[in-house]
Amino acid sequence: MNIKEYMADVGARARASATVIAATQSLQKNAALLAIASSLDERRDELVSANKKDMAQGISDGLAAALLDRLCLDDQAIDQMIVGLSQVAKLPDPCGEITDLSYRPSGIQVGKMRVPLGVVGIIYESRPNVTIDAASLCLKSGNAAILRGGKEALNSNKAISACIETGLKKVGLPKDIIQVISTADRAAVGELITMNEFVDVIVPRGGKGLIERIVNQATVSVIKHLDGICHVYIDDGADLIKAFDIAINSKTHRYGVCNAMETLLIASSVAPKILSRLVEAYIEKGVELRGCERTLALVDMIAATDEDWGTEYLAPILSIRIVDDMNSAIDHIARFSSGHTEAIVTQDISRARQFMSRVDSSSVIVNASTRFADGFEYGLGAEIGISTDKIHARGPVGLEGLTSQKWVVFGDGHIRE
Amino acid sequence: MNIKEYMADVGARARASATVIAATQSLQKNAALLAIASSLDERRDELVSANKKDMAQGISDGLAAALLDRLCLDDQAIDQMIVGLSQVAKLPDPCGEITDLSYRPSGIQVGKMRVPLGVVGIIYESRPNVTIDAASLCLKSGNAAILRGGKEALNSNKAISACIETGLKKVGLPKDIIQVISTADRAAVGELITMNEFVDVIVPRGGKGLIERIVNQATVSVIKHLDGICHVYIDDGADLIKAFDIAINSKTHRYGVCNAMETLLIASSVAPKILSRLVEAYIEKGVELRGCERTLALVDMIAATDEDWGTEYLAPILSIRIVDDMNSAIDHIARFSSGHTEAIVTQDISRARQFMSRVDSSSVIVNASTRFADGFEYGLGAEIGISTDKIHARGPVGLEGLTSQKWVVFGDGHIRE
């Protein structure tokens, strides 16, 4: 297979079908989503047996248990994909919404209409359910999609792709709206991220290595989700009961997620009042603690190194630092945060305002757990990822992040004088 | 000079000063803009004499008259820069605005706060006034800027840069907020567009060649303004008086601008009623006409080639095509438009709605001149360019296009269950 030709063909088909899906009404898009769900339901056996091939290959290739876990597509995972499709079908259609329509001094009426981006390229790793997540969000937002899953999931993704094709056909939409790349050749990714004439934006989902590689090589715009090194700062004006709950929830609600706290910052004046209770609770939950020197002076634990402050553990490990005050906390965050999510716990309204303004992360939270930084919690209905970027989309990216706005102008024979 | 080291130093300074300007209040930013204006006013002689060096060099290098014209910095051009600065000072500050703040079922309150992008890199060609335009918009929107003007304008830009520095110092802001690259070495651009750690977005302003080169090589996100191949379509439901005015104004109001019409499309049923009057008016204004075969059958003129449909003339030249109906017009636009601005003239509300929805350009206009596609006409107050891109900013880009939004969350001890 000539990868360059293959990808150019995929790109041209995507571009052509993007015009069709952009002009498709909500009812038909929703029907397509439900038809894909039915097709998944009807072809469970095919999906599971295709996945078994991938799993067997994965085991013989010696894939890590965590990767095999993500790769697995059982009946429950298929149920979740079906539920996801019907949830996206229920979301309001973002396309066509006109906002800010107002008259200008010249007499023309100017506003903005929300429109699809065109062609979205999504590159992801082993989870085959991402194929359905990505397909459903792109379809609902009126975009064509080119999906490139991990090579470990090639058979699973082909089987899912067949269901998508069936669903699209059933409602009379061209199959090229959602294309799944059928080659494991890495060169396909290199083509996808540089086909500026065919692709409007790339959304990579996966580990830091994958994303950095894509950002460095892409000429197409990238909505990227790098790591989540999230902080909770317990201010000296904090309500210590709220602080305790938020610090525990932010770390221990789930460990392997990007909005989990990785470093706890505590104002030195309150550290003696709360640290030992926190440490006790963390240890009870099996969290390994690594502290700065001032922390160690209060409670015995492993000493944190400079590397700890810049590490996304994604695991039951927490680094703790005692800081002089909010300014030191903000300095620490500016230096070590990945710009994902930071929280302050304080009853002091002036410091809450300052923290809110000065911390440059995609979510800044006052008196709540970092775990709320999530598309569902924010009311987006679904998310394609969490952008740690500032261009186009920031934080949880839902349907709106997959759209753009064009200017619309209404006149009545107006000309410029 | 080691360009790599020089640019890394510029980048690091920009990143550091971005934190300062992001936290600077409106009053101080406005004071800085006015202080820069005063400094330009006080140092007119230095500016003019620096510009004379560039002009002399330009003449001896054999620069085209149009380029020399753009390069020239006389008292009138300085006046315009001063007026521009005070206009930007009067615009509302986009930063800090919180929108969409609402309660979620969990009890947290979620909204979005408008924030600066960080560091903006602007690459432009001969016009030295762009240095002030770009500096003022970046400063007002709370961004640090790295400005790279054309090598023809190096002395002029250095003199302007000195005025900016004086203005920033006068109000106590660090000079690194606005840095003007002081080397003509092209390698500086190559560094600027790949320093992802220091630069958040690149805005290239200039010819198509410059912009394509930057898009192909940049790893930093680019807000790009490619060419403006704009269309007016006169529908068979058009009011022919409005159609006449709009077709004449869109082409002849100004020729060298990106929102001028380059191709006129006319529905075949109305062509016999309006074409000869239009042709007469265009010829009177000195516009060269190039027509499709059906146009030539009605009025004698030069035959248009396929190349004409894809050309941005930026000159008193117009191509004319007679089409069957609106669908053929939309097909022509989809194939040849650069996605900048298209207008329909029609009294038929159904076709107006369809044209509005189906045409995928940054501005879509009903019954008004394409010349309205402009930041000032749209009420943005000022513009850094017109984006033909769909990512982040589309159409005229003002202060808002130089900002992002972060999510803000207010709780009262809320944790995720």
Compact summary:
The structure is a homodimer of 417-residue chains. Chain A has 417 residues and is α/β, with parallel strands linked by helices. Chain A has helices spanning 3-22, 26-42, 44-60, 65-71, 75-90, 129-140, 154-170, 187-192, 208-217, 240-252, 271-284, 293-298, 306-309, 326-336, 349-358; strands spanning 98-103, 109-116, 119-124, 144-148, 178-180, 201-205, 230-234, 261-267, 288-291, 302-303, 317-323, 341-345, 363-368, 385-387, 395-397, 403-414.
Describe this structure in words.
The structure is a homodimer of 417-residue chains. Chain A starts with a helix and ends with a strand. The relative contact order of chain A is 0.13. With 417 residues, the first copy, chain A, is α/β, with parallel strands linked by helices. Chain A has helices at residues 3-22, 26-42, 44-60, 65-71, 75-90, 129-140, 154-170, 187-192, 208-217, 240-252, 271-284, 293-298, 306-309, 326-336, 349-358; strands at residues 98-103, 109-116, 119-124, 144-148, 178-180, 201-205, 230-234, 261-267, 288-291, 302-303, 317-323, 341-345, 363-368, 385-387, 395-397, 403-414. Chain A contains 15 helices and 16 strands. In chain A, the strands form four sheets. The first copy, chain A, has a seven-stranded parallel beta sheet with strand order 10-9-11-8-7-12-13, sandwiched between helices. Chain A has two domains: 3-224 and 393-409, 3-Layer(aba) Sandwich (Aldehyde Dehydrogenase, Chain A, domain 1), CATH 3.40.605; 230-372, Aldehyde Dehydrogenase, Chain A, domain 2, CATH 3.40.309.10. At the A-B interface, strand 2, helix 9, helix 10, helix 15 and strand 13 of A face strand 2, helix 9, helix 10, helix 15 and strand 13 of B. Strand 13 (363-368) of chain A pairs parallel with strand 16 of chain B.
